[in-house]
Write a structure and sequence with these properties.
Shape: globular
Mean pLDDT: 94
Strand order of the largest sheet: 15-14-26-25-24-16-17
Distance between the termini: 59 Å
Strand content: 15-25%
């Protein structure tokens, strides 16, 4: 692990292979050898975890020590003399490698790790060259699937414990564990089922011998056949750096790319395995135009001409709107609002389809992080308010877990405890509508804890941000900001921060500038369309029909004159469109992504571009040309890459204190829960990663089950204002009494049928099936 060096850090002097070196006190001998460029082999050691000393292959000779020492666990001391290339050290490492190869199969020609395998490299550089053993190697059934994305070849495992220690130290989920002892030791899971982890792809990356491999990538390519492209993951607002590997123009795998400022060296499993949708046969391949009631193939020019014609036709009435944003690049979002504002003459643009919509004057806190993602590891105290980081911002959880490992104290308040709750110092569960009351009650004790703290921060998430009392909560947190505590507003999905900054907001021009003649937001457009009709709606990369009730969508569509949908697949929204435009996904695009901390990052195409397809940006540019609108060059982008974009507290004259909701145990209130692995249009077309999604259970406290005589897993009705949907009940003691947790992103749980405001706290009933 990295040692923090300050002016007062004592240094020690030692000699390695006759070369003097000075290192900070506490530095391991192995780290000192690396500074000198001396190669010492390792297997169990990984520089993102504390040294372990299990594999014994990093042996070195130390003067005045009678036995060889493991250099990864040996602390450098003043005057120490180390020899890495002495006959004794060389022979010791050779013996360890010979021992590891006794049962290791010689199946390199079929192993996915071949060509980038540490065991191969270390054996070549430090091994015996030939084996003295002629006995039969142990054999196992080959290979064992551990869930939908992970494969285990047990006979390859050298019990280095990298994978199990990752789950213990880095992720904190204990996804993989050792089973049995001695020569029977093997990697498995605690319950014998798939690993309960959102970070299992990282264990494949750090496995030094090919015991753990990807079911998605297995046997698809060799590393030397892959063409590598550096890009950015856009599947959540963190924006992790990654590499796309492609063979013959098609993605074979994604890999994490080291970026100390963002994801370090890790990815979540959505980033590791969520790319198969890009080559799915359901991809739209050409434009479609509705003729005689049916969608029929058309040319791009026919589609562009018809869209331009309809915008001109409806322009005078001003009933034109554009929805989308989170799946588009910064440049594409800019061009979209540019087209709507300059071409159609309206400010009715919004990126918040399927999200709660709050006017700027009521927002209180704008989305974005004051703490940089990298700085999260340095926090000594953090307060999490209604945010489940593993589901929405998984790599930020890994950063905070690192801080916890080194003594940081995390407190949580919310409607249900998140996955990492076992590591929290305090957990305060409360029902929806109790956010303000809870915050005021816990802040005094929390502030007392953080007095004199090195670094403290608050992370506020969906359970609090989608409260009716968001504005008042914002004012309470602004008081903390003025005391030097960083406030991180964890809101959005995909590139929604970039969409906002690019101007896909009815009240904001590009770069956060307020608009005097504000447009209508997505909720107001929907309401007006259903009430009195609407002329023209352009939906790009958003599934509007999936966010509304069947009746509301039917009403909206019947009173909408013209609908344009731009997407990858012919979803329900596209099926009702007048023009459907196929487009590219993030794996095929070039552009920029703005993550939750306001960092601008580059996207580059990692695979062959499908024939006859255009990117969203190319489509918007072509439509801009139809209106003689100047297309920006985006030359300013490179300057933005060196700074962090931020939004500030919205200007407000006053804030009223709302009346808190009831705590009566007889009243149940709903809270929406985002999930990392859902059944979205892209995710459900990932053959392997789609299986990581669990059944969408509605979670309630066991006392609700007792009161209603529901067993765990029972089917029931969820009723809101006489509307009902079918649900499966999950009794969960980690849910606050009075809370009903509704998972988002599942077609079989039609939440749009009962509520489309996406604001938490509405009253629900649960009744048994008749």
């Amino acid at each position: 692990m990295t040692i923090q060096i300050t002016a007062s850090t004592p240094m020690v002097n030692l000699t390695i292979d006759g070369r003097p070196i000075s290192v900070p006190k506490g530095t391991a001998v192995y780290a000192a050898t690396k500074q000198l460029g001396i190669e010492v082999p390792v297997f169990c050691f990984h520089d993102r975890m504390p040294a372990f000393g299990a594999c014994r292959v990093c042996l070195v000779e130390v003067e005045k020590m009678p036995k060889l020492q493991t250099s990864c666990t040996l602390e450098a001391t003043e005057g120490m003399v180390v020899r890495t290339q002495s006959a004794q050290a060389v022979e010791g490492r050779k013996s360890i490698l010979e021992f590891l190869l006794i049962n290791h199969p010689l199946d390199c020609p079929i192993c996915d790790r071949a060509g980038e395998c540490p065991l191969q490299n270390q054996t070549l550089n430090h091994g015996p060259g030939e084996s003295r053993f002629f006995e039969a190697k142990r054999r196992f059934k080959k290979a064992v699937p551990l869930g939908p994305v992970l494969m285990l070849d047990r006979e390859r495992c050298i019990s280095c414990a990298r994978c199990t220690r990752f789950g213990e130290i880095v992720a904190g989920d204990h996804g993989l564990e050792f089973i049995d002892r001695g020569h029977k030791t093997e990697v498995g899971t605690a319950n014998g089922g798939p690993p309960q982890s959102k970070f299992i792809g990282n264990t494949i990356m750090i496995c030094p011998v090919g015991a753990l491999t990807s079911q998605v990538y297995r046997f698809r390519s060799r590393p030397w056949d892959n063409q590598e492209t550096q890009s950015t993951c856009t599947l959540c607002p963190v924006g992790c750096s990654l590499n796309f590997d492609a063979r013959d123009g098609q993605i074979t795998r994604t890999r994490s790319r080291e970026n100390p400022a963002v994801n370090d060296v890790w990815l979540c499993d959505k980033g590791w395995f969520g790319y198969e949708f890009a080559s799915h046969t359901d991809r739209l391949k050409h434009p479609l135009i509705r003729r005689n009631g049916k969608l029929e193939p058309a040319t791009w020019n026919e589609a562009f001409d018809l869209i331009a014609e309809k915008i001109n036709e409806y322009k005078a009435g001003g009933l034109i709107a554009g929805f989308g944003g989170s799946t588009l690049t910064f440049e594409e979002n800019y061009l979209f609002q540019h087209l709507m504002r300059k071409g159609a003459g309206v400010n009715h643009v919004d990126y918040r389809v399927g999200k709660s919509v709050v006017a700027l004057e009521n927002e209180g806190l704008a989305p974005g992080m004051q703490t940089s993602i990298g700085e999260c590891e340095e926090l000594s105290h953090a307060l999490l308010l209604g945010v489940d980081l593993t589901e929405e911002f998984p790599l930020i959880w890994l950063r905070l877990k690192h801080a916890i490992h080194y003594g940081a104290q995390l407190s949580f308040a919310g409607h249900y405890a998140p996955e990492g709750a076992r590591y929290f110092t305090q957990t305060h569960l409360h029902a929806p509508l109790q956010e303000l009351q809870t915050l005021k009650s816990i802040l005094p004790s929390w502030l007392a804890q953080v007095q004199g703290a090195k670094k403290a921060a608050v992370f506020i998430g969906r359970q609090y941000l989608d409260s009716p009392y968001r504005q008042a909560l914002g004012f309470e947190l602004e008081k903390l900001r003025k005391q030097g505590i960083a406030i991180n507003v964890m809101e959005g999905s995909g590139n929604s921060f970039g969409a906002r900054y690019a101007g896909m907001h009815p009240q904001l021009a590009p770069f956060g500038e307020r608009i005097l003649n504000a447009g209508l937001d997505v909720q107001k457009v929907i309401e007006k369309a259903c009430d009195s009709g609407w002329n023209f709606l352009y939906v790009a990369g958003a599934h509007l029909a999936g966010q509304l009730s069947r009746d509301q969508w039917k009403t909206l569509r019947s009173r909408l004159d013209f609908l344009v949908v731009q997407d990858l697949f012919l979803n329900e929204t596209a099926q009702e469109a007048d023009v459907v435009l196929p487009t590219l996904c993030h794996i095929e695009k070039e552009g920029s992504f703005v993550n939750i901390e306001g960092r601008l990052q580059a996207l580059r195409p990692g695979k062959e571009i499908p024939a006859d397809l255009l990117s969203d940006g190319e489509i918007f540019s072509e439509l801009c040309r139809r209106f003689d609108i100047e297309i920006p060059s985006f030359a300013f982008i490179e300057k933005l890459r060196v700074q962090r974009i931020s939004f500030t507290l919205s200007e407000q004259k006053s804030s009223s204190t709302p009346v808190s909701g009831t705590n009566s145990p007889d009243v149940l209130r709903a809270t929406f829960a985002p999930t990392l692995f859902d059944q979205g249009e892209r995710m459900k077309r990932n053959t392997h990663a789609a299986q990581l999604a669990t059944s969408p259970h509605v979670r309630v406290h066991p006392t609700v089950g007792l009161a209603h005589k529901f067993d765990d897993g029972a089917k029931a009705q969820l009723i809101v204002n006489s509307k009902s949907i079918l649900i499966n009940i999950k009794l969960d003691p980690n849910v606050a009494q009075g809370s009903v947790v509704l998972p988002l992103g599942f077609e079989e749980l039609a939440l749009g049928e009962i509520n489309t405001s996406w604001i938490n706290g509405f009253e629900v009933e649960i009744q048994p099936l008749l």
